[in-house]
Design brief:
Largest sheet: 8 strands, antiparallel
Order of helices and strands: HHHEEEHHEEEEE
Shape: globular
Number of helices: 5
């Protein structure tokens, strides 16, 4: 009887230990999935990153403008050479922009499917060169518009971006809130988008 009770309590301790370890592992996995171990960049660090790659970013934008399809706005993010983390295509006119395609985590070859190739007119070498230009700029995405948004790095669901103004007359006053937007000069605005969860402003605000 005593042995039975002893083994019973030992079993409870083992099961409890396994549950505790499982809970810890699960919480760590969730924490990592939401960017808990990702790097957070200060405004100063983000400025340094931009100015260290300014020429490459300008070359990226120049190339993108060469291949951008007329009448459409493209938002494309690469996870790696084979996977697009995000692809969104919208019609572009003066009155209304309408999303006509939106996918996450898709094979990069989707760009060569007839339906998208008709819109984009991108050859495989065009896509390869766009990815190459992004890699040289140490960035991961391009989102069309004014300003054009160049995605730098993700931190969990959040994204650090460089927004480059193309037009002198663009109103910049809405980008001076010093929360998700940091207006550096007439050309450059830094952005931190927090995603669905987490802080929506720059985690670190110090400036040089």
């Amino acid at each position: 009887m005593e042995k039975t009770i002893k083994y019973f309590f030992i079993g409870i301790l083992i099961v409890g230990g396994l549950l505790l370890v499982g809970t810890i592992v699960f919480n760590v996995m969730v924490f990592a999935a939401f960017g808990g171990f990702d790097k957070y960049y200060s405004v100063s660090e983000l400025k340094d990153e931009y100015f260290s790659k300014e020429k490459e970013i300008e070359e990226l934008i120049k190339y993108y403008n060469q291949i951008r399809p007329d009448g459409y706005l493209i938002d494309i993010e690469f996870e790696d050479d084979k996977t697009l983390g995000r692809l969104q295509i919208s019609t572009h006119n003066d009155s209304l922009n309408q999303v006509i395609y939106q996918k996450w985590d898709v094979d990069v070859n989707v760009l060569q499917k007839d339906s998208l190739k008709t819109i984009l007119k991108w050859r495989e070498e065009d896509v390869f060169k766009l990815k190459e230009k992004l890699d040289k700029a140490n960035c991961i995405s391009v989102e069309d518009g004014e300003p054009i948004k160049i995605g730098f790095k993700r931190s969990g669901l959040g994204m650090y971006s460089f927004n480059i103004f193309q037009e002198i007359q663009t109103d910049r006053t809405e980008y001076q809130n010093r929360c998700e937007y940091i207006l550096v000069n007439r050309k450059l605005m830094l952005e931190y988008g927090g995603g669905a969860v987490g802080p929506q402003c720059f985690p670190k605000q110090e400036l040089k």
